[in-house]
Amino acid sequence: MASYIGDGWDDLEGYIAGSPPNAAGQRLYDPLTFTYRAITPMETAALSRRTSLMLEKELAENGDGSKTEMAIYDFIASKLKSWDLKAKGVHPLPINGKNVSGMQFTLFSILREIMYNQRLSDIKPDETKPAHSADDLLGNSSAASA
Fold this sequence. Notes:
Distance between the termini: 16 Å
Helix content: 25-40%
Largest sheet: 3 strands, antiparallel
Structural class: alpha+beta
């Protein structure tokens, strides 16, 4: 089992299979292919500290926490390098916090888990194995340990 997460500077390819269709052929979300930089524990801790302070200040000023939420979406967007997310399945969307916040909830949750190294990407239909093994995702390789 891998136990070291790399510095997050390697661009990784991710894929999320579309949700299973219902009897009418409708899906909750379409497949998503993306390139990203993994989010490290240090970045997670820093984001948590920063957003905790932001939320405290925002609520003290009678805010509703939406600015703090958007800071989290902006952070995730900053780690995405490319994606094929489309509005209504047709119109390509630029990567930004607003579009990340507008993703279908389950799709966003899966994306976040992959970027936070909590889940592996799905297998693309044209591949025989995941895009990255757990060791690749965590920055380990047999060459590095030799």
